[in-house]
Design brief:
Layout lengths: L1 H14 L5 H8 L11 H9 L6 H14 L5 H24 L50 H25 L4 H11 L6 H9 L23 H17 L4 H8 L3 H9 L6 H10 L4 H25 L7 H6 L13 E2 L6 E2 L10 E6 L5 H14 L3 E5 L15 E5 L6 H7 L9 E5 L11 H14 L1 E8 L9 H4 L6 E4 L27 E5 L5 E5 L3
Parallel strand pairs: 3-7, 3-8, 4-5, 4-6, 6-7
Antiparallel strand pairs: 1-2, 8-9, 9-10
Helix pairs in contact: 1-4, 1-5, 2-3, 2-4, 4-5, 7-8, 9-13, 10-11, 12-13
């Protein structure tokens, strides 16, 4: 029933000419204190959120849309939607009654008090007001059977999302009437889309995200160069609109087909470099604008190229397979960090070279930091180097204690100077020892801090090196020993979420590689050469 209510609202808005949320807000008006009775965000939520809207707001929105749609009986329309709302509410209550509560109910609160109604005359002053959920999510691990009605709803949501894409394309083509006419002609061929094509052809539609329900069928992963692409398209659009060029005219002047320009714009794709140069030439751009366009293009191109390499990474690879892909001439202190994509080559740092004998592995929980440290340790041991393992918290490193080449394994949340000195007492450039530490942030202020700092400063001469693993959200790179590891300017970032994480390994990272869902064992390797290489961690 909630779906039926949502569909009815969308049909009513379509008949009203697809007014924007702000237009509906303005039609409802303000109260005596000059506050909007219903703000535009609330109007958006009424259409987009899967929750049951508050009845008072629903009645106001229906009244405005009914009048704009020219309905003969606005009062009857309002009663119809009120009836749908009550049925949806009863259905919500019935569903909630057979599901275990997700949290204890507040004592003394009646069912009547929980009904999501509000006064028609109450001002809606908070655009961020929390919405009540229409249904409770099933508990973890519980499978909810998919009935016929739910399956039908999913199909309808896909259709709603398709309508949103149509509106989005109509917005992009609005300034080019010829292209818009051709596009809407294609839309009219689809059964049930004639009315929508007529509506978006008469007046420029509102923001496409306003319409419909988000659908998994039409979800597209954001571009890895989203920031650069947005800036590039914004500049191209600015200069195009300023000169009042249609896509057809742009195609004629640049020699690049107009359908290519339309596709790049509506699909948020990267134009060819040839097209950007041609645009700049035809528009007679100033030198600084020309340089800015090409700079954005180069940045977006590099980000997309790196992302393609990321997508080519193997789904899973064992340590033995990865070890066989190394260069046979790798030195003793070479550490296996990961495998690249198409060329299937093993990459990692040589801890005996560089600006400092250190290497950092950083990432959020669940990104595979401990697995990467185990691989590094195994690679060092396989090359006849020795390691000292430090794991103040539960870690797979502890399972390596006692193996040949493992000098010691410290598992307490404190590391003393004397015990670490004893473990490193037999080191020399000919027989080096590497300290591999997981959860290094726990020991940032440990007693052995001065000795660990000395490894970073004098490890090349003494035959020692340091590999540390840290949580991305707890990087304590201040003035302690851990901050000294930044001097190595190299490391492995696993599923980085923050741009500042790149500072820890000596490279700037942008929005193109941050904020993506955590993918265990997928990361970006920097070996101090200013380049980020996408790698898969064995394991």
């Amino acid at each position: 029933m909630l779906k039926k209510l949502n569909d009815g609202l969308h049909d009513l808005r379509l008949d009203a000419g697809l007014p924007s949320a702000r237009s509906i807000r303005d039609r409802i008006g303000k109260d005596a204190q000059d506050y909007w009775i219903v703000n535009h965000q609330t109007v958006l939520d009424t259409f987009q959120r899967p929750d049951l809207p508050k009845l008072g707001r629903l009645e106001l929105i229906v009244a405005v849309l009914s009048e704009d749609a020219g309905r003969d009986d606005p009062e009857g329309e309002a009663k119809r939607f009120k009836g749908l709302w009550k049925q949806a509410y009863d259905e919500t209550v019935a569903q909630a009654s057979v599901q275990p509560p997700t949290e204890p109910a507040a004592s003394g609160v009646s069912d009547e008090a929980r009904i999501p109604t509000d006064s028609v005359h109450a001002p809606d002053r908070d655009a961020e007001e929390t919405h009540q959920q229409g249904t409770q999510a099933p508990s973890a691990g519980e499978e909810t059977p998919l009935d016929v009605d739910e399956a039908a709803a999913r199909v309808n949501y896909a259709e709603e999302s398709l309508k949103g894409l149509i509106i989005n394309a109509a917005q992009a083509l609005w300034d080019d009437k010829d292209a818009l006419r051709v596009f809407l002609g294609v839309v009219r061929r689809g059964e049930g889309f004639v009315k929508m094509a007529d509506a978006v052809g008469e007046s420029r539609p509102a923001n496409a995200t306003y319409y419909g329900v988000k659908s998994r069928e039409f979800e597209v992963a954001p571009s890895p160069a989203r920031h650069e692409l947005v800036m590039l398209h914004r500049l191209l659009q600015k200069h195009r609109v300023k000169r009042q060029w249609s896509f057809t005219y742009l195609g004629e002047e640049t020699g690049i087909p107009s359908d290519a320009w339309i596709r790049w714009y509506t699909h948020d794709e990267l134009p060819t470099r040839e097209a950007v140069v041609a645009f700049s030439h035809v528009a007679h751009l100033m030198l600084e604008d020309h340089v800015l366009l090409l700079g954005l293009w180069e940045a977006a191109h590099e980000a997309l190229k790196a992302q393609r390499g990321f997508e080519d990474l193997p789904e899973r690879i064992s340590f033995d397979e990865a070890w066989s892909m190394r260069n046979p001439a790798t030195p003793t202190l070479w550490a296996l960090a990961g495998i690249t994509g198409k060329e299937r080559r093993a990459y990692g740092p040589d801890l005996a070279t560089g600006t400092a004998p250190a290497f950092i592995v950083a990432g959020p929980p669940g990104s595979g930091r401990s697995t990467a440290l185990v691989n590094i340790s195994r690679a060092l041991l396989a090359a006849n180097a020795r390691v000292v393992l430090v794991a103040p918290k539960a870690s797979p490193l502890r399972e390596m204690a006692g193996q040949s080449g493992v000098v010691d394994c410290f598992v307490r949340d404190e590391l003393g100077t004397n015990e670490l000195e004893a473990a490193l007492s037999s080191t020399s450039p000919e027989e080096p020892v590497v300290v591999v530490m997981d959860d290094a942030e726990v020991l940032d202020k440990c007693d052995a801090g001065r000795l660990l700092k000395s490894i970073v400063h004098h490890g090349f001469e003494e035959g020692t090196a340091l590999v540390v693993g840290c949580r991305e959200d707890k990087l304590p790179f201040g003035f302690g020993w851990l901050g000294e590891t930044k001097k190595a300017h190299r490391g492995l970032l696993l599923s980085p979420q923050e741009r500042s994480t790149g500072d820890a390994i000596g490279i700037r990272i942008g929005d193109s590689i941050t904020g993506w869902p955590i993918a265990p064992g997928r990361g970006w390797l920097h070996l101090g050469d200013g380049k980020l290489t996408p790698v898969a961690v064995p394991g």
